[in-house]
Amino acid sequence: MPNIQSAFKRWKQNLRRRAANYSTRNAIHTLRNQIFEVATSAENKTKVKDMYRKYSSLLDKAVKRGIITKNMASRSKSRATARIKKMPA
Asked: How high is the mean pLDDT of the chain?
């Protein structure tokens, strides 16, 4: 626990930021797993496309906020796209 007031304030801010970042990362992982689950089954492609659009948007927002790196977002999108293309027709 910090003794200096400014250090205490930074500590509280970091706790809030960490919670928000964790929430965003968790949402990204959950959506990715849902896409991969739906992509392996022979469900409709429109649902997968909508999910991918949300996933891509979430990744871009995370990059903009500095939660993940640009390369990680690009790699994740690429892998998701490849998985969707392998989807049974």
From this structure: 92
